[in-house]
Amino acid sequence: MHSSWGRILVQYEEILKDLKFLSNPENVAGMARFGISTEKTYGVPVPELRKIAKQVVRNHLLAQQLWNSGIHEARILASMIDVHQQVTEEQMDRWVRDFDSWDVCDQCCSNLFDKTRFAHQKAVDWSSRSEEFVKRAGFVLMAALSVHDKKADDNQFAKFLPIIKREATDDRNFVKKAVNWALRQIGKRNLDLNKAAIKTAKEIQRVDSKAAKWIASDALRELTSPTVQRTLTSKRHST
Fold first, then answer.
1. Are residues 138 and 22 in the same domain?
2. Could you tell me if residue 20 is inside a domain?
3. Is the pLDDT of residue 2 over 70?
4. 44 lies in the same domain as 111
5. Residue 129 resides in a domain
6. What DSSP state is assigned to residue 151?
7. Per-residue pLDDT tens for 96-112?
8. Which of 20, 117, 159, 202 has its CA 20 to 30 A from that of 68?
């Protein structure tokens, strides 16, 4: 145990050195313009983080160490190398409370959280929370599950639609964009969910809220587009 823990610590230190070496202050300034936190941020692009992740054997304890460092890129890397079967509900709730940027939120949800057995329930739970990035995480999970969870049935996504409608009046930028994203991804899963998502979008459009009207019109533009309709029709015919 001690020797494996020692190896993890060595690996952890090496990764932090790599991140420091790749740091780019110009990138940090650019990230700030896109609403990304510059706190403990090195400005290492995601493709570079993926290269590092590919060289590391997935390890739950190493992921915890990287997360606890508080370094922006180390946290994204943690979501890439953690072992989803070992992730607990407590860990998900702890990490989500630490989210301070949309990119850490989105990477965690689409690299790791959406693969856990708690994903569908957390999407529901977090979507009703008031904290901006916790709430965003709920809707990003819905979007990620729509793309990645091939085994889930339509009912599991249909249950998200009333939640999307309920929260469509939240005008905080990072929330409304995630609500819109969830609605669009559910509506692109198959023809039946497309119809259900379009119906929901039309209901949202009638709500007296600037955020709701933007979410609905943007989603309807994509979901009713010839490209999406053709793709979903051909998908149905090929199954």
1. no
2. yes
3. no
4. no
5. yes
6. S
7. 999 999 999 999 999 99
8. 117
How far is the C-alpha of 48 from the C-alpha of 218, rounded, in Å? 32
> d(Cα 45, Cα 54) in Å, to the nearest integer?
15
CA contacts within 13 A on the Cβ side of 31: 24
Convert the pLDDT of each residue in 16-43 to its tens digit.
Answer: 999 999 988 888 887 777 777 777 889 9
What are the φ/ψ torsions at residue 28 (nearest 5 degrees)? -60, -45
Distance CA 8, CA 1 (A): 11
Same domain, 72 and 117: no
Instruction: Report the interhelical angle of 89-98 vs 60-68 (nearest 10°).
Output: 30
Share of the chain above pLDDT 90, in %: 85
**Rounded CA separation 74/13 (Å):** 11
Averaged pLDDT of the chain: 94
Token pair listed for 170: 């939240």
Domain of residue 114: give its range: 100-239
* 210 contacts 172 by C-beta, under 8 angstroms: no
Indicate the range of 4-13, 173-182, 190-199 predicted with least confidence: 4-13
Helical H segments across the chain, by residue range: 2-21, 25-33, 46-54, 60-68, 72-81, 89-98, 102-111, 119-127, 132-148, 154-158, 160-166, 173-187, 191-205, 210-223, 226-238
- In the chain, how many domains are there? 2
Angle between helix 2-21 and helix 60-68 axes, rounded to 10 deg = 50
Domain contains 17:
yes
